[in-house]
Amino acid sequence: MADETSLVGVTGTDPAGASSGGESLKTVVIAFAANLVIAIAKSFAAVVTGSASMLAEAAHSWADTGNEIFLLVADRRSGKGRDARHPMGYGREAYVWSMFAAFGLFTAGAVVSISHGITELRNPEEASDFAVAYVVLALSFVLEGVSFTQAVLQTRRSARRLGRRFFDHVLNTSVPTLRAVFFEDAAALLGILIAATGVALHQVTGSAVPDAVGSILVGVLLGVVAVVLIERNRRFLVGENVRPEVRTHVLERLLQRTDVDRVTYLHLEFLGPSRLYLVAAVDMAGDDVEHRLAGRLRRLERLLEEDDLIEEAVLTLATPEEPALRP
Q1: pLDDT tens digit string along 46-60?
Q2: Which fold has domain 244-317?
């Protein structure tokens, strides 16, 4: 925020959401296409083989496919600009629709898989045509791997620009669609391995118990992922503050301006993916009369809002007795 310095890439929000939003959309579209093909293939295999693990995996993939639709809506609606009805913009729509996706993963994925596994334990059924299951699971692993690779590459680029560790960025990114695709694809790959193990043990032992247990384990895995995603979206919806290093950097940028002597108050809050609400109390340089100070404050606000990451900036004058903030 020095005279010509942008916040992009240094505030700890996410360039992925502001400067490369198209990449987030690409990640979701790839995930949707992959999950749709996989869901159809797994459903076919579940009917042919009668495997509980395959049915759980089919439910998982259909849940993921539906969730990608929610994520596409999240990406589209959160990108709308401010208007009279929403003066802070529509950024938090991303967390609302991503929350729907997480609930869908829990109900359509976790609950169905666990319920079917328990039913299979009580009333085991014979399975057959195991080769079909193996072929479909192998194809699913490849397609899920393609989608997961896209999510990993986008996450890695964003984390590198921000100087963050990879998993720290996944958990704390303000772009919920990226986090959702990453965790869903990671869970899908692990779920495929669990399902393959359940099917193999069913074939070797002739018992449906390992298959049923595999279905339950897939459901538990999906439930854990859903809870993590729900909690992260909840925190952003209720107004997650930025990380301390982000606040320090913005404070330093304000103090680097030649027309700002002191900053006595600074509040930064996410309004959406890579969109910040900034409130600050500043002591302007010089001893201007009131109407000139008001004009300078407004001009500084407008200048701050030219940055892609600042949705709204509100500045007030600091009083002499207020202690100055230190970076």
Answers
A1: 888 888 888 888 888
A2: Alpha-Beta Plaits (3.30.70)
